[in-house]
Write a structure and sequence with these properties.
elongated; alpha/beta; five-stranded parallel β-sheet; Dihydrodipicolinate Reductase, domain 2; Alpha-Beta Plaits; homodimer; Rossmann fold
Chain lengths: 430, 430
C-alpha cells in the first residue's frame, strides 16, 4: 500500500507554533477524513524549555534533532529572524524535507536560495502564513490566479500600523498615543520600529511581488516609508476631503516595469481598503483575467496564522503522498525591471505651513507649475494674519523627482514656516 | 520519463468557454514554465457549429467524441443546464476523465452523485468557476481553510441582482427600471427570473455550504426569496437608517444545526459587503481559526470565470501527473441538521402602511409584543391624517414563525392599508 501518513517536526513554539500544534492535533481526524492522509506531529522544539515541556515525549532536544530525523517529512519553522531560521530551513531541505514557514523576513531575504534548493531536492516550501495571516493570498496568487498577468497588488499587510492609524482616526489621538494603545493591547512590540517604519510591510509586498512577477527584489532597492511622520492633523484633513490614511505595500506592473514601494497613502473612504480597521489585513489584486479583487481577514494572531500553516502542511502532505514531484516556479512573464522611485507618478496631498498673507499661494503655485505639478484643489484651513496657517493641496499625478524638487524649493520660501508634509494618494482602484 | 502533459476537451463554447480556450492557449507557455506541465486543448465542441469553426482541426463532431477520446484527460463542461451536462459529466467520469465545470445548477442538484463517482474512478472534479466567478472561494474553503470549522458564509453571489440593487440605490429608480438597465447592458437575460427570484444565489450558497459543512441540501428544503418585491421606497428608508439592501446567500452553523437561506438583507453601510456594487460578487466567511474574512471580485464575465476554469485545469493537471490519487472529501464535522426556517431568528425591518391616527402604533406594538417581537426603533415618515402613511420599524432578533404570525394579524387591522413589507437585517458581522 502507498504511504498515506506524513510526519511533522515543529521548530518554534511561540503563539503561532502553539496554536498550530494544538489545532493540528485536534483536527487530525477530520483532516484524515477529508484527504485520506494521517498527519502526525513527531517532534517539537523550542529553545525555551518550558514551552515544550507540555509536549512530553514529543519534545526534541535541539532543532538539529528534528532536521536530521529520518522519519520527519515536513519541518515547520516558526522561530522568526533570519539567521538560525535560514540555517534550519536550508539544512532541512538539504536533508530532503519539505519546509513550512511563516517567516517573511527570511523569505524576502533568502527566498531565491531556498526555492532553488527545494526544487533541486524535489521538496516543497510552504509560506502562506508569512503574509497576511489567515488570508489565502499566497495560494490565490500562485494557484487560483495562475492564468493571470498580475498588474497591481496593494496591501494593508501590517496589523500594528493599521491599528494605530485606526485609533488615530476614531479617537482623534496623535501617533504617540496610538502606539501606546497598541502596546497596551499587545499589538505593538516594545520596539515596534520594524512595523511602524514599514519594513514588515516591505518584506511582505516583496514576497507578493515575487510570486506574481517571478522576480524577488531586495528591500534595499525599494522605497520604504513608515507611519511615524503621520500627524493627527493630516488624518483629520484627509478625512474632511473624504480620504483615510493607510500604510500600503504597493506593487504595480506595466509592460516590463515594476514599481514596488511602501508608504502611507490617502485612499477614498469608499474604497474597500479604507474600511479595513484595527489589526486586520487586506490585499487588493488586479489581473488581466480576474479584473479587480480583494481579500480581507485577520492578519495576525496564533489561530489566523496557524490556520495558514495547517493549510500548507496539508497541501504539502497531499503532494508527498503523490509520487511525482510537481514544479512550482515563479516565472517572470517578461524580463522585468524595477522602476526607479524618482520616475514613479502619483497624486499627492500636501500640507504647507505658511504665513497668511496675499501672494503666498501664487509663490507656491509658481514653483509647482515650474515642476510640472498640476493642482487639483487647494484649501486654506484658517485665516490668521499673525500666525502660520495650514494650506492643504491635492494634486494631479506628478513625478516623484519633480515633487521632491518642488517641495525643497517651496520649503526655502520665507513665507513657509515648517517643512511641508507630503502624502501620496491612490484613486481609480475600483 | 513520467508523463508531463495533459490533454483537455472542451464542451460548450459560450462566453466562458471561448475565454478559457483563448487564454489557456495564450498562457500555455508560462503555465508550463511555472508547473513543468504542458496543457493541450485537444478537442472542442459546441452544438452551434459556427462557434467551433474557428478552431478548425480541434473541433469535434459531438460531445460524445470528446467524452470517449482516450487521449483526453480532462473534460471541461461549460454548456450549463442540468440534463445534458449531467449526462456528459457522469460519462466523462465513468470513462476515467477528470471534469471541470462552472455549472452551479448541476452541482447543487447532482453534486453528491458526481463526487462519489469521481472518487470511485480516482479522478477529480473541479468547480471553482461555479460560484462567484474569479473569486477563489471554493479553493479557499476546501484547501486554505481546511483546518477550520466554518461557522458563517454570507455571499453576494449574483451579479444581476446586485447590479439592479446598486442602480436602484444610486439612481433612485424602481425595480422594473433597474431590470431594464441590467438587460440593456447584457447583465440580465431576457427571462431573468432564475437570478431575480434568488435561485441562482441558492445554487451557489448550497455549494458553499456543501464544501464547508460536508452536507449537500436541496434547494427545495431552503427558504429562497428574490429581490422582486424590493421597492425603491424601502431602498431609500433603509439608506436613511444607515443600511443598504443586498441579496445574500446565507449559511450559518451552530453546533449541529445549519441554516441556509437566500433573501434580501439590510446591511449596515459600513459593512464591507455593502460596498460591493454592480455585477461584483463577495463572500464573507467566518471560521473558528481564521476569524472573519472576506473575498471580493468579479462574479461574472468570460475572463473572470475563465480564470477559475484555468486554475482548476492546472490544479487537476498537477494531480494527474502525480501518480497517487488524493482523496477530496466533504466531511460533516458532526451530524448536522437543517434548522427549520420557522425557527430562525433575525432582526427585522418592517414597513407598515397605516392610517395616520392616534392609537395605531399601540395596536401594532401590542401584536408584536404578544408575539415576543421587541421593537428597536420606530419612525413615522410623514403625517397626513387623510391618507395612509409609512411607519418604519426595526426590531431586535425575533423568530421567523412569530414574525409571520404577527404580520398576518397586523395586516388584518382596519388601520393597515397595504400588506406590510418585511426585510431581514444582519448586523454584528465585523
Amino acid at each position: 500500500m502507498d504511504k498515506k501518513s506524513v510526519n511533522i517536526g515543529v521548530i518554534g513554539c511561540g503563539t503561532v507554533g502553539l496554536s498550530f500544534i494544538k489545532n493540528l492535533i485536534s483536527k487530525k481526524k477530520i483532516i484524515k477524513e477529508k484527504t485520506g492522509i494521517e498527519i502526525n506531529i513527531l517532534k517539537v522544539f523550542d529553545k525555551v524549555k518550558s514551552k515544550i515541556n507540555p509536549f512530553k515525549n514529543l519534545s526534541a532536544l535541539s532543532a538539529e534533532e528534528i532536521i536530521k530525523d529520518k522519519n520527519i517529512d515536513i519541518v515547520v519553522e516558526l522561530i522568526g529572524g533570519t539567521d538560525f531560521a535560514y540555517e534550519f530551513c536550508m539544512k532541512a531541505i538539504e536533508n530532503g524535507k519539505s519546509v513550512v514557514t511563516a517567516n517573511k523576513a527570511l523569505l524576502s531575504k533568502y527566498g531565491i536560495d531556498l526555492f532553488k534548493k527545494a526544487k533541486e531536492k524535489n521538496v516543497y516550501l510552504g509560506f502562506e502564513a508569512s503574509v497576511a495571516g489567515a488570508i489565502p493570498i499566497i495560494k490565490s496568487l500562485k494557484e487560483s490566479f495562475v492564468g493571470n498577468k498580475i498588474t497591481k497588488i496593494l496591501g494593508i499587510l501590517n496589523g500594528t500600523t493599521n491599528y494605530i492609524l485606526s485609533e488615530m482616526y476614531y479617537k482623534e489621538i496623535d501617533f504617540e498615543k496610538g502606539i501606546e494603545a497598541a502596546k497596551k493591547l499587545g499589538y505593538a512590540e516594545a520596539n515596534p520600529s520594524l512595523d511602524i517604519k514599514g519594513y514588515d510591510t516591505a518584506h511582505k509586498i516583496l514576497i507578493l511581488s515575487y510570486i506574481s512577477s517571478g522576480k524577488l527584489f531586495s528591500i534595499d532597492d525599494i522605497y520604504v516609508e513608515g507611519i511615524d511622520r503621520i500627524k493627527i492633523i493630516d488624518v483629520k484633513f484627509a478625512s474632511e476631503f473624504g480620504y483615510r490614511i493607510k500604510l500600503l505595500g504597493i506593487c504595480k506592473k506595466e509592460k516590463n516595469q515594476i514599481e514596488i514601494r511602501v508608504h502611507p497613502v490617502l485612499l477614498p473612504k469608499t474604497h474597500l481598503l479604507s474600511l479595513v480597521e484595527g489589526v486586520n489585513n487586506a490585499v487588493y489584486v488586479e489581473g488581466d483575467l480576474i479584473g479587480k479583487s480583494l481579500f480581507y481577514g485577520e492578519g495576525a494572531g496564533g489561530n489566523a496564522a496557524g490556520s495558514s500553516v495547517i493549510s500548507d502542511v496539508v497541501d504539502i502532505s497531499k503532494k508527498i503522498v503523490s509520487k511525482n514531484f510537481v514544479e512550482e516556479n515563479f516565472v517572470p512573464d517578461e524580463n522585468i525591471f524595477l522602476k526607479p522611485f524618482d520616475e514613479i507618478e502619483t497624486k499627492y496631498y500636501f500640507r504647507f505651513t505658511a504665513i497668511d498673507k496675499p501672494g503666498v499661494l501664487a509663490k507656491i503655485s509658481k514653483i509647482l507649475g515650474d515642476n510640472s505639478i498640476s493642482i487639483l484643489s487647494v484649501i486654506q484651513k484658517q485665516d490668521n494674519p499673525k500666525k502660520a496657517v495650514p494650506i492643504i493641496m491635492l494634486t494631479h499625478k506628478a513625478k516623484e523627482k519633480n515633487v521632491k524638487k518642488a517641495i525643497k524649493e517651496i520649503d526655502k520660501l520665507d513665507v513657509i514656516k515648517n517643512s511641508t508634509i507630503t502624502i501620496r494618494l491612490e484613486e481609480e482602484l475600483m
